[in-house]
Amino acid sequence: MKTALSIAGSDSSGGAGIQADLKTMTMNGVYAMSAVTALTAQNTTGVTAILNVPAEFLAKQIDAVFEDIRPDAVKIGMVSSAELIETIAKRLCAHHAVNIVVDPVMIATSGARLIDPAAVSALKEKLLPIARVVTPNIPEAEVLSGMKIETKQDMETASKQICAQYRCAVLCKGGHSLNDANDLLCTPDGTLRWFEGKRIDNPNTHGTGCTLSSAIAANLAKGAPLDEAIRRAKEYLSGALADMLDLGHGSGPMNHAYLLSCNE
Ligand SMILES: Nc1ncnc2c1ncn2[C@@H]1O[C@H](COP(=O)(O)OP(=O)(O)O)[C@@H](O)[C@H]1O
Ligand SMILES: Cc1ncc(COP(=O)(O)O)c(N)n1
């Protein structure tokens, strides 16, 4: 069985972060492991507290995983401090990690800030260069590229710029403000490819970014080429959104287990 590691924060409400990643990886057919960067006290309406793990402890978790069950892919999600980002980059390089998917988590769907402003440059300088693909949403792509994104053309320009500067593939997700749920992949050879997605009329989108990046990592772990891993990941995500789970008082989670029957 292929294996994948999520390095991310815990979401106590189970819809995003480590919890979404483990469910997604499992449902995408790989053995899922975790290295927790932070605990969040969180539900569908917001984040009330964040407790980062000490950097040495994060390093121990990553080492423990690599020294025993080597991951075929690694997804990186919420990492809120520069020290933790640097620790991850060092440990992944030491272990020659492959298929690294970086979801540059900055602001939760509920509006909470999940990264220190001072850590953004560490994210750019240390994690993007080791990524097989980075998956910003529009506001994150604006921060990474330094430009405002208002049109499809802007998405293309910003993605090309991030891709050229950090030499990694960029999947710019259109879920937020632009067009349907169409995402743009830009690869270091300069190729652009749009992944068309039909917008599902569901306000419960907590954890969509975490889920997409974990599904990409799982499919890369299984040996899919990047574009096929993205295609399968979008298909899984659309199915989970279309199941119309409705939990909590805010933007709720998706049904990660929609492929299993919930009937008795
Ligand atoms: N309502 C929706 N219907 C279908 N796909 C969506 C919807 N909202 C977001 N997506 C898709 O979910 C993925 C995550 O996108 P997005 O919500 O922008 O990320 P994030 O959670 O990081 O803000 C993308 O593939 C995007 O196209
Ligand atoms: C621990 C943690 N990690 C990431 C997110 C982002 O989630 P979303 O996909 O809703 O923006 C989150 N809300 N909590």
From TrEMBL:
Involved pathway(s): Cofactor biosynthesis; thiamine diphosphate biosynthesis; 4-amino-2-methyl-5-diphosphomethylpyrimidine from 5-amino-1-(5-phospho-D-ribosyl)imidazole: step 2/3; Cofactor biosynthesis; thiamine diphosphate biosynthesis; 4-amino-2-methyl-5-diphosphomethylpyrimidine from 5-amino-1-(5-phospho-D-ribosyl)imidazole: step 3/3
One GO CC annotation: cytosol
GO biological-process terms attached to the record: thiamine biosynthetic process
Name of the top EC class for this enzyme: transferase
Signal peptide: none
Keywords: ATP-binding, Kinase, Nucleotide-binding, Thiamine biosynthesis, Transferase
GO molecular function term, any single one: ATP binding
Keyword Amino-acid biosynthesis: no
Record has Transferase as a keyword: yes
Residue ranges annotated for the Pyridoxamine kinase/Phosphomethylpyrimidine kinase domain, each copy included: 11-255
InterPro entries named among the record's database cross-references: HMP/HMP-P_kinase_dom, PM/HMP-P_kinase-1, Ribokinase-like
E.C. numbers: 2.7.1.49, 2.7.4.7
Catalyzed reaction equations: 4-amino-2-methyl-5-(phosphooxymethyl)pyrimidine + ATP = 4-amino-2-methyl-5-(diphosphooxymethyl)pyrimidine + ADP; 4-amino-5-hydroxymethyl-2-methylpyrimidine + ATP = 4-amino-2-methyl-5-(phosphooxymethyl)pyrimidine + ADP + H(+)
PANTHER family: HYDROXYMETHYLPYRIMIDINE_PHOSPHOMETHYLPYRIMIDINE KINASE THI20-RELATED (PTHR20858:SF17), PHOSPHOMETHYLPYRIMIDINE KINASE (PTHR20858)
Family label: Belongs to the ThiD family.
Protein name: Hydroxymethylpyrimidine/phosphomethylpyrimidine kinase
Protein species of origin: Merdimmobilis hominis
Encoding gene, per UniProt annotation: thiD
